[in-house]
Amino acid sequence: MKFDILESEYFNATDYFVDKNIREGRKDKVAVLCEDRQMTYGTLAREVNRFGNALLSSGVRMGDRVAMLMLDTEFYPVVFFGSIKSGAVPICLNTLMRPKDYLYFLNDSRARVLLVDESLYFNVQESKDQLKFLEQIILVNGDKQVTDTIALNDFIDGKSDSLDPAPTCPDDSCFWLYSSGSTGKPKGTVHLQHDMLFSAQTYGKQVLKIEEEDVCFSAAKLFFAYGLGNGTYFPFSVGATAVLMPDRPTPASVYKTIALHKPTLFFGVPTLYGAMLAEEEGKMNGVKLCISAGEALPADIFHRWKKRFNVDILDGIGSTEIVHIYISNRVDDIRPGSTGKLVPGYEGKIVDNDFNELPRGEIGTVLIKGDSTAAFYWNKHEKTKEAMLGDWFNTDDKFFVDEQGYYFYVGRSNDMLKVGGIWVSPIEVEACLIGHPSVLECAVVPGRDEENLVKPCAYIVLNKSYSASEALEKEIKTYVKKELAHYKFPRWIYFVEDLPKTATGKVKRFELKKLEDQKAALPA
Questions:
Q1: Stated pTM of the model
Q2: How far apart are CA 206 and CA 223, in angstroms?
Q3: What is the C-alpha to C-alpha distance for residues 266 and 250, in angstroms, rounded to an integer?
Q4: Burial 453-489 (b: 16+ CB within 10 A, else e)
Q5: Is CB count within 10 Å lower at the N or C end of the chain?
Q6: Which pLDDT does position 524 carry in this prediction?
Q7: Calpha distance 200→202 (Å, rounded)
Q8: CB atoms within 10 A of CB 515
Q9: Residues 458, 293, 506, 322, CA torsion sign
Q10: Do residues 343 and 394 touch, judged by C-beta distance below 8 A?
Q11: Where on the phi/psi map is residue 102: left (φ > 0), alpha (ψ -120 to 50), or beta?
Q12: Which alpha helices (H) appear in 435-508, and where do they start and end?
């Protein structure tokens, strides 16, 4: 799928997502709502230009990295798009990491400038002397005087609100996201100027069918590839409005924000939808469609959500490397329990371990081809070669496709369990467990019996009205045996207060696997 605008010699993403709205007469339209504040497209464009000019005045040049350790407020799109317009490359950093992680991110990326929320500054304060390339720290959302930093307002004070876009081309570096480090150090994923446009024109336009009148609220944060599209470039691509929430996305904070701003499109993750259903209070007034990604949405959650709110949830899957969703259900074509079909503009195939394409119905690794795929991993040559196979990206996700073209997710390649010589999908067992009324959240990982053979093991968070007991454990096991093949039922069930999760809401199965491995290593 090609777009005429990308055939030109120059293309700057900010010109498309911000300045185009001014040219099309939307300067007085609200671009961002955040708590009790709002920012119009006109104000956004001016502040983007002032920030871009401030970067240039400070010596930042095309290709220099600008790191962003920021909460979701109206300043986020100002910094993100202001950096891009100046020719710099913003890096969206996870706000829930530890100080040693930021030391790695900043030295690995060689960022020259860091924008950091005052409330998050402690994460870098102690390691400033170890930052090899950082030259300037700019504090956001604060009023304190901090040594060796400058406040954002002071940084842009007096700067012109007029700025021509840097002469970037469609294939210039645009922004970075750091991918998960569950299999080693996090990888700097380098996206190009055209990647957001491709995603907006495919998933945004043809699946979401987003319109100017829409109000988009993403509980998934902007540092997450999923959240960045939901909360910035999807709404900005059509002149719609984005709702940003700096708070942690709890059911209470999400319901409060929905009541205040009445979004039409709501973006969440399966664990949040489950937690919101567990709260008796809370309404989705004004929301016409919900979207889910991050992990597979259990069919039971879809049905309970639809019954309570009469609103559909579109489940899909995306990745940091492909920038957003590439397989999804459709508004008029939802199959609960399935991830849906390929998004227009993307191609997919299921392959075996030798990359031979498999027939429909067989489980294999999905490869995806689409022009929003990242160019490479920064300074990770071997990882790039392993994942980016010419036009195709190796997602390392296991799927099968039925005869109608619906994709069914069965887990990450390293999440699958082999029980008695038969592959078992943890996703299938978890989806079954969620159907039991006592289960709020769960994760299934491999455990080992006294003969060191692998069997399913379940960690379960109970709904409020249930208490852990041997009787309940037995009841849940019996329930799974009736719903699934006998060998798939969890031999061990552990009731826990919470599951370990990434900042994007995915369950950290690898941490639970480590616990089971440690148990297996203990002497009998």
A1: 0.88
A2: 24
A3: 14
A4: ebbbbbbbbbeeeeeeeeebbeebbebbeebbeeebb
A5: C
A6: 42
A7: 6
A8: 15
A9: positive
A10: no
A11: alpha
A12: 470-483
> What is the rounded distance in angstroms from the CA atom of residue 192 to the CA atom of residue 52?
18
Q: Return the bridge partners of 348, or none.
A: 368
**Residues 6+ away with beta carbon under 8 Å from 2:** none
Is-contact 21 239, C-beta < 8 A?
Answer: yes
Task: Beginning with the edge strand found earlier in the chain, give each strand of the sheet holding 113-117 in spatial order.
Answer: 150-151, 136-140, 113-117, 65-69, 89-92, 173-178, 188-192, 376-377
Q: What is the pLDDT of residues 96-144, one digit of tens each?
A: 888 999 999 999 999 999 999 999 999 999 889 999 999 999 999 987 7
Rg (CA), the chain: 23
**Contact assessment for residue 365 and residue 348, using Cβ atoms and an 8 Å cutoff:** no
Record the tokens describing residue 162, joined without a space: 């007029």
Dig out the tokens for 38 from the structure. 């709002």
* pLDDT attached to residue 522: 54
What is the pLDDT at residue 194? 97
What are the structure tokens assigned to 390, written together?
Answer: 């010419």
CA distance 292 to 226: 10
At residue 238, the pLDDT reads: 98
| pLDDT tens-digit series, residues 423-459 | 788 989 999 999 999 999 999 999 988 877 889 999 9
Cβ count within 10 A of residue 360:
11
Residue whose structure tokens are 């010699």: 9
522, 505 contact by CB (below 8 A): no
Q: Which amino acid is at 280?
A: E
Q: How many helices (H) and strands (E) does the chain have?
A: 17, 27
Distances (CA, A) of 517 to 457, 508, 511, 522: 12, 15, 10, 9
Identity of the residue numbered 431: A
Asked if residue 242 lies in contact with residue 264, where contact means CB atoms within 8 angstroms, the answer is no
Q: Which residues contact 135 (CB under 8 A, 6 or more apart)?
A: 59, 112, 113
Q: What is the largest CA-CA distance in the chain?
A: 73
CA atoms within 13 A on the CB side of 149: 23
Three-state DSSP class for residue 125: helix
**At a CB cut-off of 8 Å and minimum separation 6, what does 291 contact?**
208, 230, 265, 266, 267, 268, 313, 314, 316
d(CA 365, CA 378): 24
Closest C-alpha to 140, from 172, 116, 164: 116
Residues of the chain with pLDDT under 50: 524
